[in-house]
């Protein structure tokens, strides 16, 4: 497998100028695109239209080259919210078979998969955990990555809208979708998806997990899961990233875990784990969370108490500034809401670097 990674700027959620230029020049072959991760400039909450707008624009454009079915099969992960210094952009992943005369090495490999659609009652539930765990294992196996060499798993997952709850009246009134708001459902969906990763990788044992643990027992988490919820889909779209000895990629990935929002050392460790210097980093991928304890390094923070700005937006701004200051590039991927994604107040951080 030969995986390539391209980071392209965007001037708006529907701006494909950089992608069009890369395809026109032959730099990117649209037939080889398997996943696209993007940061869009909406609020990152339930009503963030920029995520769906970006996905629709990309799907329609790429369908001109690969057809509707293959365009729909691409994994699209749009994370809303470019607060602070964060700059909107796309990260394009392409994959193709390795040429037989190219020597293999321990380098970047990936797997992509889509789960089935979830009913509103299943979103944020133990059923979702099991479905995600099954899909993650399938993607890892297809990519030929050993579980110890998985460094980042990005999932785009659904949320529950008010309309979903009205249409779901035939389901058990005790279901997750009946008891939480649409915004809270984002957290439950992210949390269940992250626990699915943890189960798949053996970080959490399924038999030890109960429905009540989801978004309650934060001692259970994955060190490589990054999940982002949106209203623009009903299933989970999964991108597994790791290193495999059969790769011929010119890129490598490493990761670490931020213990808190200001943990710059973890970002440095993630870069160091690639074996490359910071000037060879293509992109950093990090999770951001306002510590639910209300404290950061022993000091009181007010991110959870502000009624005007959601705490996920504040956390993205903080972590985005930390990451950007290290790589001296504000075009980094920082996603808010880290339920069961790293320790409370922290989250996984991964670095992809060029090795050619």
Topology:
Blueprint: E1 2-9, H1 17-24, E2 33-40, H2 49-66, H3 68-73, E3 75-80, E4 89-96, E5 105-114, H4 126-143, E6 150-158, H5 162-167, H6 176-179, H7 182-200, E7 225-230, E8 237-247, E9 251-258, H8 264-272, E10 281-288, E11 295-296, E12 299-300, H9 311-327, E13 333-336, E14 347-354
Parallel strand pairs: 2-3, 6-7, 10-13
Antiparallel strand pairs: 1-4, 2-4, 5-8, 6-8, 9-14, 10-14, 11-12
Helix pairs in contact: 4-7
Model description:
- The protein has 356 residues and is α+β, with helices and mostly antiparallel strands.
- The chain has helices at residues 17-24, 49-66, 68-73, 126-143, 162-167, 176-179, 182-200, 264-272, 311-327, and strands spanning 2-9, 33-40, 75-80, 89-96, 105-114, 150-158, 225-230, 237-247, 251-258, 281-288, 295-296, 299-300, 333-336, 347-354.
- It has a 4-stranded mixed β-sheet, with helices on one face.
- β11 and β12 (299-300) form a beta hairpin.
- α4 crosses α7.
- The two termini are 16 Å apart.
């Amino acid at each position: 497998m030969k995986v390539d990674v391209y980071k392209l700027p965007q001037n708006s959620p529907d701006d494909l100028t950089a992608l069009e230029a890369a395809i026109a020049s032959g730099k990117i072959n649209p037939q080889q695109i398997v996943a696209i991760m993007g940061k869009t400039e909406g609020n990152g909450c339930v009503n963030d239209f920029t995520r769906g707008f970006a996905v629709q624009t990309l799907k329609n454009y790429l369908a001109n080259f690969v057809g509707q079915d293959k365009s729909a099969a691409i994994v699209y992960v749009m994370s809303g919210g470019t607060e602070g210094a964060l700059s909107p952009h796309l990260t394009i992943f392409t994959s193709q078979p390795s040429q037989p005369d190219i020597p293999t090495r321990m380098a970047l490999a990936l797997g992509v998969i889509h789960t089935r659609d979830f009913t509103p009652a299943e979103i944020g539930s133990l059923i979702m955990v099991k479905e995600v765990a099954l899909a993650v294992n399938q993607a890892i196996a297809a990519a030929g990555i050993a579980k110890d060499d998985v460094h980042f798993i990005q999932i785009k997952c659904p949320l529950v809208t008010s309309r979903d709850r009205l249409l779901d009246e035939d389901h058990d009134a005790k279901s997750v979708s009946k008891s939480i708001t649409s915004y809270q459902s984002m957290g439950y969906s992210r949390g269940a998806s992250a626990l699915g990763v943890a189960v798949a990788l053996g970080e959490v044992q399924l038999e030890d997990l109960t429905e009540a643990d989801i978004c309650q027992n934060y001692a259970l988490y994955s060190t490589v899961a990054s999940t982002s919820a949106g209203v623009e889909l009903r299933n989970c779209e999964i991108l597994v990233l790791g290193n495999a000895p059969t790769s011929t990629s010119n890129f490598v990935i490493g990761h670490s875990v931020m213990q808190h929002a200001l943990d710059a050392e973890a970002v440095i460790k993630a870069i160091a784990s690639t074996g490359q210097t910071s000037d060879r980093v293509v992109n950093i991928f990090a999770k951001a969370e306002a510590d639910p304890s209300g404290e950061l390094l022993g000091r009181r923070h007010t991110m959870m108490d502000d009624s005007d700005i959601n705490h996920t937006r504040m956390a993205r701004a903080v972590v985005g500034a930390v990451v950007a200051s290290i790589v001296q590039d504000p075009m980094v991927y920082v996603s808010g809401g880290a339920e069961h994604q790293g320790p409370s107040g922290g989250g996984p951080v991964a670095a992809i670097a060029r090795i050619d």
